[in-house]
Amino acid sequence: MATFNFSNATLRLSFVVGTNDKGEPVEKKKTYNNIKKGVEVESLVTVSNVIAGLTGNTMSKVEFNELQEVLSN
Asked: How far is CA 59 from CA 30, 32, 42, in A?
């Protein structure tokens, strides 16, 4: 029987930092590693909003990636 084993998780935030010559938004992405296993979605939203407030930029996207290994017994 195969099982999942939590490996790691990351939180990636995208911010609009300006516009280019064509008036299109320019984004900057910041990745935070070592997110704990089982983190609640509301906690991620709260932290993302606090970080966005500190940057002074508009947050355009929040991504949460969880990597799990498949172990076969």
From this structure: 11, 15, 16
Per the structure block, which two tokens stand in for 50? 């606090």
Q: What is the residue-level pLDDT of the chain in tens, covering all 73 positions?
A: 889 899 999 999 999 999 999 999 999 999 999 999 999 999 999 999 999 999 999 999 999 999 999 998 7
Tokens representing 29 are: 């992405």
SS3 55: helix
29 beta partners: 14
For residue 67, the cross-strand partners are: 8
